[in-house]
Structure formats: structure tokens, C-alpha cells
Design brief:
Length: 278
């Protein structure tokens, strides 16, 4: 549940902050009459994300076991890739996000009626679709449905509350630090989803080595026990993991974490140097 909570919190806060920036800019520039267009775009993005989730949940049920595992494994790998892209994108885009959104609003406000609807829909829709896909992949890996959904929902609710408090100036948090730490945690979570995607493809017969186990600790960590449930829910840890899936976990985690930590460290040094020069 913790991994899904982090996804809901981080993706939700990204979306909420974008909406808050859009609303604040329109209010500041005395264009409150355009706010309903932003909300219409947000509502459309939420509806599309929910429909996408329903399609992922109920669509493959009529397929064969092999087809379900192929689809599940492929989408899990895609989900890990999208989360990776999101983490690095936010690390680089956070510095110019405010100005970029303002430029989009100005261009859309001068254009058609649907321009701002599209800005709102695209701003929130990307996070919504990424979250939906990642939560679906997590639900498949744990075999649970409500636990991942509950974790993500709690994260989104917390993100909305934090966004409202930030907007009203009641609380102040250093967003760069928040996104840096949650990004590192999500790299670990995404590694588990990527590994599970490889395992799904092994079960489908697309990849070999399903019965060639790297380790089997089911005698110590029962999959249905509390420890196995926690480890699987947070890290997608499987007590009996094939070599290929285990290698995939490390092959994802080590380089992605290395480049991510290097990026945020370099950005932090650059920000500190710029502050010292000023």
C-alpha cells in the first residue's frame, strides 16, 4: 500500500500544483471568467483516467491466461518506464513549470474556447493516466484490488489537502526536497513493477527460465503472511523469484537510481551556486 500511496501522493500533488498555478495566474490577471474552462478540462481528464482504469481492469478478463499475462507484463514494463520518465521530467521541469504554464494559458486564452479546456485536460490527464496504469500494474502484482486503490486514493486525498494548504499559504514545504525524496522511493517501487512485468512474460512463455529460481525463501517469508504481504505491497517482492526477474530488478534499480541521484545532486549544486552568486 505504501508504494501506491507514494504514487497517488506524488502524481496527485503534481496535478494539484499545476491546477493551483493555473487558477492563481488566471485570478491574478483578472480572467476569472476563464476558470470554468480549466475545471472542465480537469473533469474530462479525471473521466478519461477512470475509463482507462475500467478498461484495464475488465478488458482482459475474456482473454486466455497467456494473453492476460502478456498484456499484464507488457503494461507493467510500460508503467515502470512512464514512472521513470515522470521522475526525471519533474526533476528538470520544476524550475520552468510556472512560466511554461503561464505561456500556455496566454496562448490558449487568445485562441478558441476549447484552448483552456485542453490545457487543463493535458495538465492533469498525463498524471492521471500514469497513475492509473501504475496502480493497475501494482494491483496485478499483489493479487489485491482494493488495497492498491485505497493506498492511491489516500495519497491523492493528501495531495489535494497539501495543495489547498499551499495555495492558502497555511503551510510551506520545500517542493524540490519533497520531489527528490519521493522520486528516489519511486525508483525502488518501479524496479519491483518492472521485475514483476518480466515475471509475467515468463509465465506467459514469452521469456524463458520461469522455474530457474534465484532464491526461494517461502519457508521463511510466507507469501500470504504479514511480512510477505508488506514486502510485496511496497517493493513487489516475491519470495520465490526466477533469475531473470531478479536480474531485471537490479538492472533497473542500479543505473536508474545512479543517474537520478546524480541529476538531483547536480541540480542542487547548481541552485546553491546560483544563490551564492546572487
Amino acid at each position: 500500500m505504501l508504494g501506491n500511496f507514494l504514487i497517488g501522493l506524488r502524481e496527485g500533488l503534481e496535478a494539484v500544483l499545476i491546477v493551483v498555478l493555473l487558477i492563481a495566474y488566471l485570478t491574478k490577471t483578472d480572467r476569472r471568467n476563464l476558470l470554468p474552462r480549466i475545471w472542465a478540462g480537469v473533469a474530462f481528464a479525471v473521466a478519461v483516467s477512470l475509463a482507462f482504469g475500467a478498461l484495464l481492469t475488465f478488458g482482459p478478463r475474456g482473454l486466455t491466461f497467456q494473453a492476460q499475462e502478456i498484456i499484464g507484463g507488457g503494461l507493467s514494463i510500460i508503467a515502470a518506464g512512464l514512472v521513470t520518465w515522470m521522475i526525471f521530467w519533474m526533476a528538470g521541469a520544476s524550475k520552468t513549470l510556472n512560466q511554461d504554464l503561464k505561456n500556455q494559458v496566454d496562448m490558449a486564452a487568445d485562441g478558441s474556447v476549447w484552448g483552456l479546456v485542453l490545457v487543463g485536460a493535458l495538465s492533469v490527464g498525463r498524471e492521471g493516466l500514469e497513475t492509473t496504469l501504475f496502480i493497475w500494474a501494482a494491483a496485478r502484482s499483489t493479487g489485491e484490488t482494493w488495497q492498491p486503490l485505497l493506498g492511491a486514493l489516500l495519497g491523492i486525498v493528501c495531495a489535494i489537502v497539501i495543495g489547498m494548504l499551499l495555495h492558502r499559504g497555511i503551510v510551506k514545504i520545500k517542493l524540490s526536497t519533497f520531489f527528490a525524496w519521493t522520486g528516489a522511493a519511486l525508483v525502488v517501487v518501479a524496479a519491483g513493477v518492472f521485475s514483476y512485468g518480466i515475471h509475467d512474460l515468463q509465465e506467459a512463455g514469452v521469456l524463458p527460465g520461469l522455474n530457474n529460481l534465484a532464491y526461494d525463501v517461502t519457508s521463511v517469508i510466507a507469501p500470504s503472511g504479514w511480512l510477505g504481504t508488506v514486502l510485496q505491497g511496497v517493493f513487489n517482492f516475491n519470495p520465490s523469484t526466477p533469475w531473470l526477474a531478479a536480474i531485471a530488478w537490479w538492472a533497473y534499480l542500479v543505473p536508474v537510481m545512479f543517474f537520478y541521484l546524480r541529476k538531483i545532486t547536480a541540480d542542487s549544486r547548481a541552485a546553491k551556486s546560483a544563490a551564492d552568486n546572487n
